[in-house]
Specification:
The protein has helices at 78-95, 97-113, 129-135, 153-163, 188-200, 213-221, 225-232, 245-251, 269-277, 286-291, 299-304, 324-339, 347-354, 356-361, 394-401, 417-422, and strands spanning 3-8, 10-14, 17-19, 22-27, 30-36, 52-55, 57-62, 116-123, 138-145, 174-180, 205-209, 259-263, 282-284, 309-311, 379-382, 407-412, 415-416. By secondary structure, it is of the alpha/beta class. Helix 1 packs across helix 2 (97-113), helix 4 (153-163) runs parallel beside helix 5 (188-200) and helix 12 crosses helix 13. The structure holds zinc ion (ZN).
């Protein structure tokens, strides 16, 4: 295993800590020590010195298998996009798994090139898991459940409980869990059964929550396109339509640190209080929300309210690239525009959400997300352009100026995955 040192002009240990210059010692996949200054000149180097070294990004929401679905239905409204672009694409891929395998391989290559060392993936087919395990990335995969089309709900739940043991695909780096897709695709009884099944096995769940105005209207008032759809299918009675999705999950005991709530675009102050009190992490996907025109999530209010925030790209079906630099900047710019306050959100908040926040959401905060002794050697080296009179501190420079093209190394557990990819 690699043993050696990494030295940088700026070693960013976490959102609030920079050693300029700094270096760290790595042995057996882990960081053994972090120091200020320069290493002894005869120390064995794992990569070139100089530049910026920081924790590898944690992308807390993606669907890697959809990597070849970019541009399908680009300008459709959200509900039309789901029905007329995503559903046919997923049906096509289910008949021809090569499409999903190609998609996962493309997505994984983009993650590594972009300095992402850890990803939370979910999909209805575990096609990406062997690829993820083979890539050396750290991660979590949630197997998606869609229960809204079952003609007999009780039979669907019994089948799930009998037959949905997760395949033996997990590895020390890639953990498995469930992903009951959303409250509208998994009605309350199905959602409760899936989360209970996961909790009995100490697995995490990923749930898309309150992403679109259509979803919000349906759960709050029982009106709109989703209500029409479920009424026509004779299934409206399976749903509760008098309060927000977050309140419904809270009432069923389905919030908590083991539940990754994704999107939460339409939530209000009462929902934020429930998420914070239950220590439920929220994964914000700013560019996907903008591309699909579902609205602007109240991220500044979530942070002020004490919600644990992570950042995700979502899939290449709804964003052009899996790029955490772009996600950080978009989050900051959108929130400043929304709140009309420059102080509503800073570079540190974005950096935190893109690293330790994601690690916390995935229950991996003791393994990754910061550079400190004992943690895995999951780090990225960047070559930021030399700027005369650069006044920004290194964390701000990474957030405001960072580009995927500046990533020279993506190490996970002491392995340089970017070098392996280019070999
Ligand atoms: Zn998603």
């Amino acid at each position: 295993m690699n043993a050696g040192v990494v030295a940088a002009d700026h070693l960013i240990t976490d959102a609030a800590g920079v050693l300029s210059p700094g270096w760290m010692q790595i042995q057996d996949e882990r960081i053994v020590a972090v120091h200020e200054g320069r290493p002894p000149h005869d120390a064995p180097l794992l990569c070139e010195t100089g530049g910026v070294v920081m924790p590898a990004f944690v992308n807390a929401h993606a669907h890697l298998a959809l990597g070849t679905c970019g541009g399908i239905g680009d300008d459709l409204a959200y509900a039309e996009w789901l029905r007329h672009a995503m559903l046919p694409a997923v049906t096509r891929g289910s008949a021809d798994r090569e499409m999903f395998m190609d998609g996962a391989a493309q997505s994984i290559a983009m993650l590594v090139a972009g300095g992402i060392g850890c990803v939370a993936d979910s999909f209805l087919d575990p096609v990406s898991v062997p690829l993820l395990a083979g890539s050396g990335l750290r991660g979590y995969f949630g197997l998606e459940v869609f229960g809204s089309r079952a003609s007999d709900e009780a039979a669907f739940i019994a089948d799930f409980e009998d037959g949905r043991e997760l395949p033996e695909l997990g590895t020390p780096r890639v953990q498995l869990g469930h992903a009951p897709h959303s409250l509208f695709t998994c009605p309350p009884k199905v959602m409760a059964a899936v989360v209970a099944h996961a909790r009995r096995r100490k697995l995490r769940c990923t749930i898309h929550v309150d992403e679109s105005p259509e979803e919000h209207e349906f759960f709050l008032r029982g009106t709109g396109a989703l209500a029409d759809h479920f009424r026509a299918a004779g299934m409206l009675g399976r749903y509760r339509c008098d309060t927000s999705p977050v309140r419904q999950l809270a009432d069923m005991g389905l919030l908590g640190p083991d539940i990754m709530v994704v999107h939460a675009v339409q939530i209000d102050a009462a929902d934020i209080a429930l998420l914070a009190a239950s220590r439920t992490p929220v994964v914000h996907c700013p560019r996907s929300n903008l591309m699909l025109a579902v609205g602007l999530a109240p991220v500044a209010e979530m942070l002020a309210g004490g919600v644990s925030l992570a950042l995700g790209t979502d899939s290449l079906a709804s964003v052009p690239t899996l790029d955490m630099f772009e996600e950080m900047r978009t989050m900051l710019l959108v929130q400043r525009g929304r709140t009309r306050r420059t102080t509503s959100l800073g570079a540190i908040d974005a950096f935190m959400a893109a690293t330790l926040g994601g690690a916390r959401a995935m229950g991996l905060e003791h393994e990754t997300g910061t550079l400190e002794p004992g943690k895995c050697a999951d780090f990225v080296r960047l070559e930021l352009p030399r700027v005369v009179n650069a006044r920004r501190d290194p964390v701000s420079r990474v957030v405001w100026e960072g580009q995927v093209e500046q990533v020279t190394h993506t190490f996970v557990g002491g392995r340089d995955l970017l070098a392996e990819l280019s070999a």
